[in-house]
Amino acid sequence: MDRLHKFLFEGMPVRGMIVRLEGGWRDLLARRTSRDDGGHAFTQPVRSLLGEMAAAACLMQANLKFNGALVLQVFGDGPVKLAVAEAQHDLSFRATAKVSGPVPAGAGLKAMLNVHGKGRCAITLDPKDRLPGQQPYQGVVPLHGDRREPLDEDAIGRSEDYNRIAMLAGTLTAEELLALDPDDLMRRLFWQERVLRFEPQTPHFACTCSRERVARMLFGLGREEVQGIVDEQGQVEIGCDFCGAQYRFDPVDALALFTPDAERAPGSPSVQ
């Protein structure tokens, strides 16, 4: 079961979280979008990257008091051109990747995204109810082997409690994180500490795509561009990269996007 656990150590300036994605992660992988550009299933390194990014997005979102989407992206000059994970304020999450070439077994971040040192990581906070003219908040940093959040390292160096907890947490292996129940992990790691646990939260897979959002995107392309697609293909068909939903606009639907009423509120909630 998908769970995110928050905890803190009584009497210490230390808190932590642990997340496990199971059912939601299987739902994500079952989608038709878990394919590379050639139609092949993502290899294990790509699946691992997306899983880690989805978990990281949920952890970061749970640490914020923010009503909107947190989007974590990595992009670069390797066979994985882009990997994206998004978590909403209710911890619904989705993730996908653009893969243009073979990704060998055991490939790490450098081989997938940072072959020539041009890889980047971006974190975007997109408020749900943006004011007119308001832009999302975004930070972009180069990809390095040792990435971590900015910390007051002098203060950490003086905190024996933090260093002790960090040392204990650093003994965890990937196998233990995947195999052991969070309660067992906490008991094994911090059996001498006073740990306060909070009610767990439930991450889940969900996609925010809709026919209305696709209609707004088409409206932004302009009448001439959309008419050109209709003339060439007979209709406009857009597929969601995250969940595989297909949105189709026949010539009548496409033209209706640019009527006076549609210009005020293009799109409808139906999906074909």
Key terms:
three-stranded antiparallel sheet, alpha+beta, single chain, CBS domain Like, 35% helix, Hsp33 domain, 272 residues, six-stranded mixed sheet, disordered C terminus
Q: Your description of this structure?
A:
- The chain has 272 residues and is α+β, with helices and mostly antiparallel strands.
- The chain folds into 2 domains: 3-205, Hsp33 domain (3-Layer(bab) Sandwich), CATH 3.55.30.10; 211-264, CBS domain Like, CATH 3.90.1280.
- It is built from 11 helices and 11 strands.
- The protein has helices at 23-30, 44-62, 109-113, 153-158, 160-169, 174-179, 182-190, 211-221, 223-233, 251-256, 260-264; strands at 3-9, 15-20, 68-75, 80-87, 92-99, 120-127, 137-142, 195-197, 204-205, 236-239, 246-249.
- A hairpin with a 6-residue loop joins strand 10 (236-239) and strand 11 (246-249).
- The chain is elongated.
- It starts with a strand and ends in an 8-residue tail after the last helix.
Count of extended strands: 11
Largest sheet: spatial strand order: 7-6-3-4-5-9
Mean pLDDT: 85
Strand content: 15-25%
Q: Roughly what percent helix?
A: 25-40%
Total number of helices = 11
Query: What is the C-level CATH assignment of the largest domain?
Result: Alpha Beta
How large is the radius of gyration?
A: 22 Å
**Straight-line N-to-C gap:** 31 Å
Question: How would the global form be characterised?
Answer: elongated
- The helix/strand series, from N terminus to C terminus, equals EEHHEEEHEEHHHHEEHHEEHH
CATH topology of the largest domain: Hsp33 domain
